[in-house]
Every structure is written in C-alpha cells, then in structure tokens.
Amino acid sequence: MRYLLTALALTAPFFVAQASVAESLDAGQREILSAEAGAMAIYEDARLEIAKAKASGAPRLHLSTLKWPKFKNLLVIPHEISTLENLQVLYLTGTGVSDLAPLAGLTQLKGLYLTKTQVSDLAPLANLTQLDTLWLTETQVSDLTPLANLTQLEMLSLTKTQVSDLAPLANLTQLTMLDLTEIPASDFSTLEPLVQSGLMVIK
Q: What is the pTM of this model?
C-alpha cells in the first residue's frame, strides 16, 4: 500500500515533518519521500552503516540485509557512500536500488554484487577499473559498453539480464568465469579468443 507521507520514518520512532523539511533533505531522502512507509528508515540505517564503515576503515560493506517491517529494502544508495574511498567490496543484492551514480568515485572497489536489483544503467561503473568481480544476475542491464575498459574483471555474472551484445567484453582478457545463463544474446563469436585462453562460459 502506498502512503502520502506526512511523517518521516527514521531508525528511531516516527516524527511529524514540517512542510518545509523537504528543502533540507538530501537527494536520496527527497526521492523516497513518496515511497512505501519504512523507506526513510532503511535509508537512514544505510547511512549509519556507511558511517560505521567510514569510522572503522572496513573494506567491506553489506547493505543487502537492511529491512523494515512490511517494507522490502533499500531504494536509494546514500550519497555518503562516496566518502568510502578505500571500500573494496559492496553488497547490494536484493535491494531496490537502480541508480549507481553514488558509486562512480569508488575506484578501489574490487567486488560489486547487484543481483536482483533494479539496475539497468552501468555507466557509473565505467571508471571502476579495479573491479574483478561483478554480479548483475537478474537485473535490467542490457548495455555492457561501460564495462569495456574494466580489464581486471575476472568473474562476471549476466544471468537473466537483457544483454544481447557481448562485443564490449572482447578485451576483458582476465575473465575466468562468465555466466550467460538465460540471456537473449545469440552471437558468442566475440568470446572465442577468451575461451581459447581459458575463459569458462556458463550458458
């Protein structure tokens, strides 16, 4: 059920928001004002987890497990994640996120797990050249062009995506595992040199 929110759900009890409060919210908070009850609470929980990771210097961050009663999961990646310059592994599996823009500057990221998210645009990942593991299983991704220069990629899952053109993967010579289960692509000739070099392709 959708609600016209007159209150914001935080990790603490609900409070009544003044009409002018929207002007003081960050972009992520404004985006979820009209979402299901609990969206703001999960967003604030995500910000808290990011703050903890920032303080501890932890190289891994799990945002996949954030839940709220009667609500699914995180919808928007808090912009604060951009401050985790040394983050190496990020789990967003099963969240409702679609916009990866906050990740664009995380150049030390090595593992990114986006299975069962609403992601379709990979452009923000184009400069994450340290990525060696990328899971895009059951997303809306169709264009792999932003991955063309991610030459450190070793493991890539495209299971149940909308990918039909595999040409952008031609120069990813470090790939050792590529999962293409249930994708619309029919021309796999681009991958032949990689297979000859040891790439394992799962179809």
A: 0.82
